[in-house]
Amino acid sequence: MTHPDISQPPEPVLLHERDARGVHTLTLNAPRSFNVLSETMLMALQAAIDAVASDPQSRLVLIAAQGKAFCAGHDLKEMRAHPDLVYYQALFARCSRLMLSIRRLEVPVLARVQGLATAAGCQLVAQCDLAVASDNASFGVNGIDVGLFCATPGVALSRNVLPKQAMEMLLTGDFISADQARERGLVNRVVAPDGLDAEIERLAQRILAKPREALAMGKALFYRQLETGLEAAYQLAGQTMACNMVHEVAQEGVQAFIDKRAPSWRG
Hints:
Elements: E1 14-18, E2 23-28, H1 39-53, E3 60-65, E4 69-71, H2 76-80, H3 85-104, E5 109-113, E6 116-118, H4 120-127, E7 130-134, E8 138-140, H5 151-157, H6 163-172, E9 176-177, H7 178-184, E10 189-191, H8 196-208, H9 212-226, H10 230-246, H11 248-259
Helix pairs in contact: 1-3, 4-5, 9-10
């Protein structure tokens, strides 16, 4: 009889790779538990996002997953084992910190959704700047099915889809298809499973062809202005454009346009 080698370390719940272009790929690697956002997974994701934030050469983050599910939300078994208000407050604060860290990253964050994304998993997709899904993916905020209204997932969801569409998902727990998610604004593109990586690479190349500095300014402004009134939004946007215009990347880009040549930052 062959015995398992118990000396082998367990597989990490998150795989973190960085390529020569500055693309960080974070892969949820707990397929047996449908990549739930356990305490361990949340801490691993936070550490990875913090590492990206400290990498001045980072250009893009791709959040992917192993197995049939992208992410099934919080670990309900882990939560049920700690029936304590202080524990739950700390857990949801940790999750909220992660979501805000994704928002505050200077570089775009792209979700690669190959399967089920539910509750906090759907929240993770909604929190990313962009999302590409396979046509067999599905999305839901179905905590209500176990008596738990998906309040924190609703924050990100309601900033992607229209209020009544978000509320219907939150109140009923019903799932929507990948095509419905695209129609409602939750994902950008839907492709066949075997075309998912190619579609993501096409989108990534489009982003990588643009100057990092301009993208960083633009991402920060885009989300700030969404949370303000119209007049304040224009003030923020005008200041951002002015700062962007005096930056060397815009000066070079405009001069290249005038000279009818490619800007130097395109390589």
